[in-house]
Design a protein that fits this description.
Elements (H helix, E strand, L loop, with lengths): L8 H13 L2 H7 L4 H10 L17 H14 L1 H19 L5 H14 L38
Pfam families: Acyl-CoA_dh_N
Protein name: Butyryl-CoA dehydrogenase
GO molecular function, one term: oxidoreductase activity, acting on the CH-CH group of donors
Amino acid sequence: MIHPERDDWARQLTALRQQMAEQAASLDASGEFPWRNIDHLRAGGWLSLAVPPSCGGAGASLAQLQQVIAAIAWGEPATALIVCMQYLHHLRLAENDAWHAPLRQQVFHDAVEHGGLINSLRVEPELGLPGAGRPAGHRGDPSRGGLGHQRP
């Protein structure tokens, strides 16, 4: 398993950069989800680095996680975004007592044992969705060159 305290950490990060870069051009051209990259990260244990050691993860520091994200982003930025969200959610979940302990344990266990991914939904009806633009009924403000929002 990957672990940031091993002597070959720098070599592991270099290999990760190269692995992620192998598909970057084809992923950019196709716009497909980076399944092979995720499978590689899953097989190597990269997806559970932010899971606390008490739950079977590496408990990597923020600096170490940043090194991993940078290595992945150097090779293939879309994959780095997915992994960044994974790490952020695991870090927040480890500090959030609002989640019931069994559910937290399940999320961590799934990441460690199966490379399970976690993310969140963004729903802000008044702002629309990032990929869909403004909700119906909004229009640009012509007095400001079409920028800004105003209700009709």
